[in-house]
Design goal:
Layout lengths: L2 H8 L3 H9 L6 E3 L2 E3 L2 H11 L5 H9 L4 H4 L4 H4 L5 E5 L4 H13 L7 H14 L8 E2 L16 E12 L7 E9 L3 H16 L3 H7 L3 H16 L1
Parallel strand pairs: 3-5, 4-6
Antiparallel strand pairs: 1-2, 5-6
Length: 230
Amino acid sequence: MDLEQLAAYLHRDVREVSKLANRGYLPGKKVGGEWRFTSSEINHWIETQMHAYTEEELTALERRGTATCLATEPLVCSMLSEGTTAIPLRASTKASVLRELVKLAEQSWQVYDADALLVAVKHREELGTTALESGVAIPHPHRPLSEKAQADSIIVFARTAGGIPFGAPDGGLTDLFFLVSCRDSRTHLRVLARLSRMMLRIGFLDELRSTETPADALALFERTERDLLE
């Protein structure tokens, strides 16, 4: 993408995007004196900025380029099931959490190559932790897996019995984990935006930590997502 295409993609003024690029805030490079950007790197940049987005900004991101009917339908709950939920997750290290999350993902019957998924989420963590200061982490592949490795988009949720070191920016521990593996980048950003909106709800994370079974967690997700869409 060039500057004008990126500005349209981000729904921002081209002058603002130009300033961000020239100041080194956007991932891009100059080719023949002109800025060029790849969608995968821009999407990664959006991910790193999303924790600071307002409810309005997250809603706009979630609905961008999406039909109205899709924007008002359940998203998280359509990709999550009791089979892909674990309370508690029996893991005590970052490596074991990732392995157990991938095992849960296999329960969706949408993952054909679990090893490929595990390698992908490990690679993404090497690029930068997906842990947030809220005690939540959202491991995911840097790019969508091939159709040979995965069918439909999936979400896995798990909570460990106690917090573990996962690389959170504030040095805090992490106990809530969402493994997100979508079939395309647009859906991936929509899922991250929807999850972020849910986490902004007062008391949501506390309630999630107090759930005792996968069924309890799913009921909370359904109730919260329904409230967002009303």
